[in-house]
Specification:
MetI-like fold, 12 helices, 77% helix
Length: 280
């Protein structure tokens, strides 16, 4: 009797687990299916190689927006990734100090600020001083969004490393900075990379900050000190337009953005997985 009860209980929990997983992934599947269904028709060779066509003409593409997104996100990542990891290490390895308390307050504050306000801050600090929209101001706004996310995830992941690992490294006579850089951080590289990917995915789809900073163009930018097109702003501009051709291309651009995020995520996880297997 007790054996049957345990089997029934086990089966019920498995069913609840499967239902929970299905409920969790249903919105994701629905969004992906909608984007693929609506955007697949816009994906032509010229869509990836051309700039927008004049109003009223059929065709055109988003090559300038794809390149612009890579430029702005790349500029933001160059500063945000190492800075965020360093701050995460500082919070994890040197806690309970005045500096840590101030840093923790600043990180929590930045994570709670709407990205629209961050865009306005970058507008007032850079755009108004330079008297022009630019890739620099867009990258600065995205960097401010990215750093707190990387810092928080790095801190939490490094805290999962047992204290005995740190003590073992110190017992071998290694300086603390070598223990951090050669033992603790490499052992958590997979989890830290996941935090970096989360931050990249977050800023890749941000529109509001870029409307106040990078703004956008209908051609390729010739300088980082002038407005630059990005995929999120292009999607927003096309989606609110009265032209069917532009709205169709907005779905195509959204599909491209999703595909880029999936490819970056998959490649990074594959590299991390192969590195982990190699160490084993």
């Amino acid at each position: 009797m007790k054996s049957n009860f345990r089997k029934t209980k086990d089966l019920s929990l498995k069913v609840l687990y499967i239902m929970g997983v299905l409920i969790a992934i249903a919105p994701l599947v629905s969004v992906l299916w909608t984007v693929v269904r609506e955007g697949y028709g816009a994906l032509t060779p010229t869509f990836f190689t051309n700039t927008p066509a004049p109003v009223g003409e059929v065709g055109g593409g988003i090559a300038h927006a794809i390149i612009g997104s890579f430029v702005v996100v790349g500029l933001a990542s160059i500063v945000a990734i190492p800075w965020g990891i360093i701050l995460g290490i500082a919070r994890s390895e040197f806690p309970k100090t005045i500096t840590d308390n101030i840093l923790g307050f600043a990180i929590d504050l930045f994570m709670s600020i709407p990205t629209l306000l961050i865009g306005l801050f970058a507008y007032g600090l850079i755009v108004m001083r330079m008297r022009t929209f630019s890739a620099w101001s867009g990258a600065f706004a995205l960097m401010l969004i990215m750093v707190p996310l990387i810092t928080k995830t790095t801190e939490e992941m490094l805290k999962q490393v047992p204290l005995t690992v740190r003590e073992a490294g110190l017992a071998l006579g290694l300086p603390r900075w070598k223990v951090i850089l050669r033992i603790i951080l490499p052992g958590s590289i997979g989890a830290v990379s996941s935090g970096v990917l989360l931050a990249l995915a977050r800023i890749s789809g941000e529109t509001a900050p870029l409307l106040f900073t990078a703004f956008g163009m209908r051609t390729f930018s010739q300088s980082l000190s002038e407005p630059i097109a990005t995929l999120p702003v292009q999607i927003y501009t096309y989606s609110i337009s009265p032209y069917d051709e532009w709205r169709s291309q907005s779905w195509g651009a959204a599909l491209v953005l999703v595909m880029l995020a999936l490819v970056v995520n998959g490649v990074t996880r594959a590299l991390i997985g192969s590195r982990t297997r190699g160490k084993k």
